Every structure is written in C-alpha cells, then in structure tokens.
Amino acid sequence: MGTKVDVQKHVNGSSFAELLPDEQDLPYEEELLRNPYSVKLWMRYLDAKKGAPSNKRYIIYERALKALPGSYKVSLYSRFPSK
Description:
Largest sheet: 2 strands, antiparallel
Number of strands: 2
Strand order of the largest sheet: 1-2
Distance between the termini: 39 Å
Structural class: mainly alpha
Number of helices: 5
Strand content: under 5%
Oligomer: single chain
C-alpha cells in the first residue's frame, strides 16, 4: 500500500507546501522546461524569489547548479545567499 505524504510536515522551518512552485512561479518553470541552460532566466527567477523563504531559494539555486554547465556555475554560485 502507498503511503500518504503529509504536506504539513516541516522541512527546516518551512512546510513542504511552501517549497513547491506556486502560481507566480509557473512562467519561470514553464520557460525553464523549454530552456534549462539559460543563466539569465535562472537569475531572473532567483531575483523574483528574493522575498521567498530561504529554503525555497536554496532549492532553486540547487536546481540551477544541476542544470547549468560548469562554466556558468561560477556566476550563479557567487550570488548564492549565505545563511
């Protein structure tokens, strides 16, 4: 039998639901599906999420670092927020 995921479970101070993309994220998420190697797009997405919980921003940074080729990671990593 499958187990039910508890959406209210907390992940480092944020609920699981807060970490998922919301309606404001959809334009960025859709464009990233078409063009995952766009550094400009990742940067715009991260700029748009400046007021989001830090855990949500960290997830976006991690996704960008996984998606981008090595040479682009330096410019992205230099913007990575410190805790």
